[in-house]
Amino acid sequence: MASKKMKITAVNPISLGTFVGAFYAIIGLVIGIVIAFGSTLAAWFGQAGISFLQGLGLGLAVGIFSIILIPIIYFIIGWIQGVVFGFIFNIVTSYMGGLEIETK
Question: Are 79 and 33 in contact (CB under 8 A)?
Fold first, then answer.
């Protein structure tokens, strides 16, 4: 098959920000699940001065907090990075005439 060359001259920064934010949110969810699992394990092994049920409650609270809040925080950070990168990309490609890609 013959390959075609295309030139990208601009991107929509908001669209790019949404894509990067969603990607980061998925990564944040995985990290949140790991933290939730780790906090539950820490509760099972117990902490000095607190009972098993107190440790389990603390582990559950940290777990819920990490599964909900970390993906939201990661999305916000990713969205900001994507928007900034989109604006920078548009400025740079306006000076260099675009970004050339090859498709089949």
Answer: no
pLDDT digits (tens, 9 = 90+) for 41-99: 777 676 666 677 777 777 788 888 899 999 999 999 999 999 999 999 999 999 998 89
103 within a domain of the structure (yes/no) = no
The distance from CA 95 to its chain's CA centroid, rounded to whole angstroms, is 30
| Domain containing residue 56 | 17-95
Instruction: Please say whether the dihedral angle defined by the alpha carbons of residues 42, 45, 49 and 52, taken in this order, is positive or negative.
Output: positive
The two three-digit tokens of residue 39, written as one number: 């906090």
Nearest Cα residue to 58 out of 71, 70, 49? 49
The pTM for the full model equals 0.80
Q: Which residue has the tokens 């001259």?
A: 9
3-state secondary structure at position 1: coil
- Looking at residue 16, its pLDDT comes to 96
Does 8 reside within a domain?
no
